[in-house]
Amino acid sequence: MTNILSTIMQAHHMPLADLIEPGPGFRIGGPDFQFEAVQRDERSWTSIDRAHELKVQTTLAVRGAALVIEHRLTNIGAAASPPIDVVEPLYLVFRQPLEAWRFITANGGTTESYYPPTAYRTNERTGERASHGPENPVLIESHPLGRSSNLHLPLLIALSSTAPGSDGLFCGLEWSATWYMAHGAPEEGKSSLAAGVKVAGMRLEPGETLTLPAVHLGTFSGGAAAGTNALRRYLYEHVCARYHGELMIPRANYSTWFGLYNNIDHGRLKAEADRAAELGLEVFAIDASWFPSNFPEGVGNWDRVDLEKFPDGLEPIAEHVRSLGMGLGMWFEPERGVEGTSAVEQHPDWFVPVPRAPWYKKQPYHLNLALPAAQDWVIETVGGWIERLGLVWSRWDYNIEPMPMWKAIDPTLKIQFAYMQGLYRVLDTLMADHPDWMVEGCASGGRRVDMGTMRRAHTFWFSDQSVDPLLCRYMQARANRFLPGHLCDSTVAVPLGAGDAGYDDTAVLSRMLGKLAIDGDVASWSPALTERVAGWVAQFKAIRHLLVQDFYQLLPMPTTAEDWDAVQFTSVTGDEAAVFVFADLVHGGQRTIRLQALQPERKYQITRPLDGAPWTVRGRELMDDGLAIELAPREGVLWRIGTA
Q: How far apart are CA 411 and CA 124, in angstroms?
């Protein structure tokens, strides 16, 4: 395969092509599984392991700066295949030693209450080998309990040297279940890259075919920042879900959950909707507990509304929201059910009991989406609410670990392939049938953020940490090194009856480095604060197109309370930018921030929104001399930079 791969890379002037060794390009089974190419043309080929009677059909496509490689694995024998413990849709060997590489990865979308948090923290290291053996892979992987980004984001940036402007690659699997990526040293002077699915002795029945996760392998030149922007641009243009066929621009939305939680009813939502419209928000989303028995005990009561809270149903709220110029959203978690709810009671054969955490009052269950009937039920149920209420938005949550269910059904974990095929069919069908409907992916925060869900989500609720602005802006700033900004949804959370205390400019700016949301009891805000925050919502709308273009981390990633943070979003042409700067937590003071990727001789107008008069300066001065900024401890600022 890699002879073809190298040839295609060279034809498209992609870096690193000459470093790739010949080989099949994938690894199935173990050392005794040997695949030989038996048929090939320009973009597809077939490989067979005659001893184990397995066939792999491979196709390759060029998408922007990347190759998309897809495999279909088939048992061509008359008996079940031997046990398979290795399924690596990507396995490449490079003609350079492991220690030459520089690796950049990121942690997943967890929830912490300390600063700096673990979530989305960038990890960088070189590939220096340990003394204990030839194999020392740089390994990132899914969590043992199965959600894809609970430990790490399933994306890798690797630079071929530690030189500042070196060539490099980025890699990911289009897959939302278990996975791993490893960069190792198969022999002296060489290195390898593997991307695989975790299985345990799975067998294929005679004639059975598995479609393996698509591999996305891209290259770039120009160093680490170029790698970040090549990956972000590729994901945005070639993987992320579009809306009405257009590239997605982040919406500013309201949601009930972080602030109101289960405390919702018709009167409260009507008041919150009125205030959300004053703030200039575009979507009003009703989160969990619109159904009987509240959250989490009522998860599975998807067939009815809680009539104690909403005596006339949700239709009057939907009509009111639309009368205010907003779209209506609604929360679902179809993959989970709780004992006694209608879903579990009516379809017991579709649900698998899973371990019960101490905070559960009743037994939780996991829906088996490998079953076509269960898929059809979700499509019908969610689709019915979309049509009934005219929904334009849903948070698709997933507060449950899949591994206990998968192992209960199939200890070899082959079940993952059918499950993911089912999940993707459900979301693909709903999005095709309801083109006005946007999906906000969620999994107890950002624990299922991957290329598979990116293709089926217009944004991600990227962490359940929504209380502390310091943590929110840190996570958004770090996540942007790998993800286009519209995927990084965070919120200004307002507890019931909170009023104005604690909601200053920095509280809002700290959620504007990605998609901005506002949750909870905004009706408790004063008219003055409402007007001020509405001004920031308008500023968000004015810069949001930049959040999906180029990104630069202007200061080192903060590691202590005394570190400042600064990032820049810039148009691809360099004629416009938004710069966010946040002071340390202790001292504040003055800093000079040097900007990047502007046009040296162009005159730029610099504005601090909502305050201060603009001034003009050339791009060269902003990049060489920098922008002088003075801030109090914990204070943040936004500078808008545009052509004079």
A: 35
Nearest Cα neighbor of 432 from 455, 462, 451, 461 is 455
d(C-alpha 498, C-alpha 314), whole Å = 26
Residue 203, classed as helix, strand or coil, is: coil
Name the amino acid, one letter, at 17. Answer: A
Question: Which residues in 566-580 are b (16+ Cβ under 10 Å) and which e?
Answer: bbbbbbeebebbbbb
Matching residue, tokens 């030693």: 97
In the chain the domains, ranked by start, together with CATH numbers, are: 2-239 (2.70.98.60), 253-548 (3.20.20.70), 551-643 (2.60.40.1180)
Residue 48's CB is within 10 A of a number of other CB atoms, namely 19
Evaluate if pTM is beyond 0.85: yes
CA atoms of 427 and 33, how far apart (whole Å): 36
- Assign 194 to helix, strand or coil: strand
Question: Does residue 296 have a cis peptide bond before it, meaning omega lies within 30 degrees of 0?
Answer: yes
Q: How far is CA 350 from CA 299, 364, 369, 375, 377, in A?
A: 15, 13, 8, 10, 10
- The pLDDT-based confidence of 1 (bands split at 50, 70, 90) is low
Tell me if 194 sits within 8 A of 91, measured CB to CB. Answer: yes
Supply the Cα-derived Rg of the chain in whole angstroms. 25
Contact by Cβ (8 Å): 590, 628: yes
Which helix (H) or strand (E) segment holds residue 551: the answer is strand 550-553
Bin 531: left if φ > 0, else alpha if -120 < ψ < 50, else beta.
alpha
Are the CB atoms for 505 and 536 separated by under 8 Å? yes
CA distance 161 to 157: 12
Q: Give the C-alpha separation, 588 to 580, whole Å.
A: 15
Of 574, 575, 619, 622, the C-alpha closest to 594 is 622
Average of per-residue pLDDT values in the chain: 96
- State pLDDT tens for residues 254-295: 999 999 999 999 999 999 999 999 999 999 999 999 999 999
SS3 365: strand
Work out the pLDDT band at 357, boundaries 50, 70, 90: confident
Per-residue three-class SS string for 602-640: CEEEEECCCCCCCEEEEHHHHHHCCEEEEECCCCEEEEE
- The DSSP call for residue 545 is G
Place of tokens 């070899």: 412
CB contact burial 157-176 (16+ within 10 A = b; e otherwise)? bbbbeeeeebbbbbbbbbbb
One-letter amino acid for residue 365 of the chain: Y
